[in-house]
Design a protein that fits this description.
10 helices; single chain; alpha/beta; two-stranded parallel sheet
Amino acid sequence: MSARLAPQPVRRIARRLRSRLLPGAVILLYHRVADLPRDPQLLAVTPRHFREHMEVAQRLGHVMSLAEIDQAARWGRVPRRAIGVTFDDGYADNLVHAKPTLEAAAAPATVFVAGTALLQQPFYWDVLERLLLRDTPLPDRIAIDIDGTRHEWPAGEGDTSHSPDDPSRWNVLSPSTQSPRQRAYRDLCDILRPPPQSTRDDVLAQTGSQVTHESPESPADTLSADQLRTLAHDGLVEIGAHTASHVMLARLTEVDQRRELCRGRAELE
């Protein structure tokens, strides 16, 4: 009996080997395109640098939409130096600063929008930045109760300084000595990453009630429904779902994972 494989399986195996051995698409992951006074989560690239990125991408590669890359990958025909451009979360500067650059470079992109962003609810890390990292006085200690457990941080310590380094350059990965308020910010961001939105809202409310300064509520930096329609209307930018409340799916049950994914998509639709 011949052991020779049929042509179709041979072609399928060849495609799999080629996809493993040859370089596939490079996916560029962005969040924000903005000049920010501080960027503790390292989410932003400046508009100038983003323009440079897109110029280099178009000169050295082949920028494709994720839908095009997906279709090409199914047939094992992803072009060499294929590049996908994506944004996570759903910040308004994706429209204000990123979209004109994408248009000028004729570069398609995909923006994955969280349901909380569309509802104009600021992300918890942005709220904490406004509460804790601005040059305003804080109480000597911040105390938070989470599910019956009390967490405390020294915060004010009698001054409004951040650290010996330039506070505008500090981020959560900085190895330099942290000020009390920076430590509180980083710890609270870690704590608020896994839990549901209701727990986050409660912790943010507790934190806000202890901040001594009076300041108006800052507007959300996220895309409104009208802005999202403008972003997507000409087809250059695809819209994808990014869960309903930007939770860690790996920490949820399968039922809750499905609920997050389906609700986030339904809100966008």
